[in-house]
Design brief:
About 30% of the residues lie in helices and about 20% in strands. It has 5 helices and 6 strands; from the N terminus they run E-H-E-H-E-E-H-E-E-H-H. Helix 2 packs antiparallel against helix 3. The longest helix is centred in the last third of the chain and has 15 residues. It starts with a strand and ends with a helix.
């Protein structure tokens, strides 16, 4: 089955500000890794991955998701998450959403997917976030990573 992702995207007119954050950090992204950049990705917050069983309509699932009023995308902090493999010392700087409204909205999305016949992927402890880049090039040095990300304070206060 195909895996789909339900995501939130900020207004398109704000994308240049998001891309500016990673403009000086692109050289740190792994060759096969992720770096939010114009022409490579769209700023987004993944809420849920899901599949649609054979014979069911993915359009029905999308319609159910799109019928939900979107929450405000407000970020209150940057968090640097270390990857699962300690040997790779991977770092994932990400903007985290303020308060609990994103979690409530995430549950609404999961419920809408289920009600429309989709099968949400079960991910324990998944926090919706906006990933800026992934890197294994700094050996865990968060200070260097923070110093090259531009304008994060504009988003996190």
């Amino acid at each position: 089955m195909t895996v789909y992702r339900a995501v939130l995207t900020p207004p398109q007119e704000s994308w240049p500000a998001y891309f500016a954050m990673t403009a000086n950090a692109r050289h740190l992204a792994d060759d096969d890794g992720y770096c939010m950049a114009e022409g490579r990705s769209v700023p987004h917050v993944t809420l849920c991955k899901f599949e649609v069983p054979e014979g069911a309509s993915v359009d029905k699932v999308w319609d159910a998701i799109k019928s939900l009023p979107p929450p405000d995308m407000v970020f209150d902090r940057m968090h640097i998450k270390n990857g699962k493999d300690p040997a790779s010392v991977s770092q994932w700087p990400m903007l985290m959403n303020a308060g609990t409204s994103i979690f409530d909205y995430q549950q609404l999305v999961v419920n809408a997917i289920t009600a429309a016949g989709g099968i949400p992927e079960k991910e324990d402890n998944y926090d919706p976030h906006l990933t800026l880049l992934s890197t294994t090039k700094l050996g865990g040095d968060n200070d260097v990573l923070k110093s090259v990300l531009q304008g994060v304070d504009d988003f996190t206060g």
